[in-house]
Specification:
The chain is an alpha/beta fold. It has one domain (about 5-205): Rossmann fold (3-Layer(aba) Sandwich). It is about 55% helix and about 15% strand. The chain contains 8 helices and 5 strands. Strands 2-3-1-4-5 form a 5-stranded parallel β-sheet, sandwiched between helices. The longest helix is centred in the middle third of the chain and has 25 residues, at about 65-85. It binds thymidine-5'-diphosphate.
Length: about 210
């Protein structure tokens, strides 16, 4: 039985997720919590290689391969990093998890969302599901504006960031559906506010939990 808690952060590219996650970790630590900050894909030695295959643009996996590689990364991550930390009583704060696979691979890549694929997603979690999920909700249009200004500032886009608008629309619609279907677990945060206001909302919902 896990003693710690798993909190995942989800959102489209450009939603400010990484900044908000780091600030949330700092806040939890200031509350005296023992926190581990981690991310997917790529936060194990094997995962680092998978991340390169998935995101560098050097390879173009077909949708099935892409899904399997994200799941491979997750299983390795759970067994090697997340589960041991939970067993040690830590709060694990993870940048993306299975909801991203549902949104980017099943919805974005238009793989048939059936019971078999859902079972595979669960299986790859090795028994570890999030206690709470923060979804940073930002429209595709607003996210595109932010991404364009970051890229103009020199930040590199990954292979998935470069997908077309309708891919990102499908990803957004999937997160919206996940939030509606899991109202207890998924906390929708309006990401179209300044950084401090978004962080205040996150702290408010986590305190209530
Ligand atoms: P990353 O550079 O880590 O940044 P961010 O999370 O801020 O976008 O990008 C990870 C990319 O991988 C992102 O485009 C979403 C994608 N992804 C999937 O397509 N499926 C998954 O299961 C996961 C975990 C991520």
């Amino acid at each position: 039985m896990s003693k710690g808690k798993l909190i995942t952060f989800e959102g489209g590219d450009g939603s400010g997720k990484t900044t908000q996650l780091s600030r949330t970790v700092a806040w939890l630590k200031a509350q005296g919590k023992d926190v581990l900050q981690t991310f997917e894909p790529g936060d194990t030695p094997l995962g680092k290689a998978l991340r390169h295959i998935l995101l560098s643009g050097e390879f173009v996996p077909v949708a099935q391969t892409e899904l399997l590689l994200f799941l491979a990364d997750r299983a390795q991550h759970v067994r090697e990093v997340i589960q041991p930390a939970l067993d040690a009583g830590k709060w694990v704060v993870c940048d993306r998890y299975s909801d991203s696979t549902l949104a980017y691979q099943l919805a974005g890549r238009k793989l048939t969302d059936n019971a078999e694929l859902r079972a595979m997603l669960k299986w790859a979690e090795c028994g570890v599901s999030p206690d709470a999920t923060i979804w940073l909700d930002l429209s595709v249009e607003d996210a595109a504006i932010r991404m364009a200004s970051r890229q103009a500032g020199g930040e590199a886009a990954n292979r998935l960031d470069n997908e077309k608008q309708d891919f990102h629309q499908s990803v957004y619609a999937a997160f919206d559906k996940i939030a509606k279907e899991n109202p207890e677990r998924v906390q929708r945060i309006n990401a179209n506010q300044d950084i401090d206001a978004v962080q205040a909302d996150i702290q408010r919902v986590l305190s209530a939990l």
